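Let us practice reading a record.
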Amino acid sequence: MTDPELPTPAKSRIRRPQDARAVRSREALRGALLALVETKPFEQIAIKEITERAGVSYPVFFRQFNSKEELLEDIAAGEVRNLLGRTNRALTSPNIEQNLFEMCDYVNGHRALWTALLTGGAAAAMRAEFTRISDEIRKSRERSNPWMPSELATAFVVSGLFEILSWWLRQPPNYPVGNVVKLIDVLIIRSTLQPVDIELE
């Protein structure tokens, strides 16, 4: 009879042991996929290519991840946290425009990766991670508009940022970053995050 307290194999992979060798393997696999996605579309990358680039065996991959999509989702979580950390600094800094430029430059500098994350197999995970981390940020900072339902504001900001970035990455690579900054400023910052003196009934 199976002990109900023992994790299933799937749960074991989710928990992922934290010994140094396992951590090194995960980092190597992340690095390999990050490098490969800069050279070809995610859909064309085989797990064998990832493991060869990472210098780990095929079985090691499946001890860490169920699929290459799950590996991409794992990368997505770190990238979203990085981006939203930059966004949060932009929103709390007196020089919002400069910080938005830095945020967009970061995405533009990792364009192939962010295209894969926002328009490929990790899109649903990206949106969920955007929402989860934005909610953490929302709870940790003072609200500019106390009258605005905070859950609605979070959903609006997350969806808006997600849609703007996704749209941008479908444009030609020479599309001006300054235009993206203006879109984020007008559609998200001014409409949601800057103080507005109104009252709801």
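A brief commentary: The CA atoms of residues 77 and 129 lie 6 Å apart.
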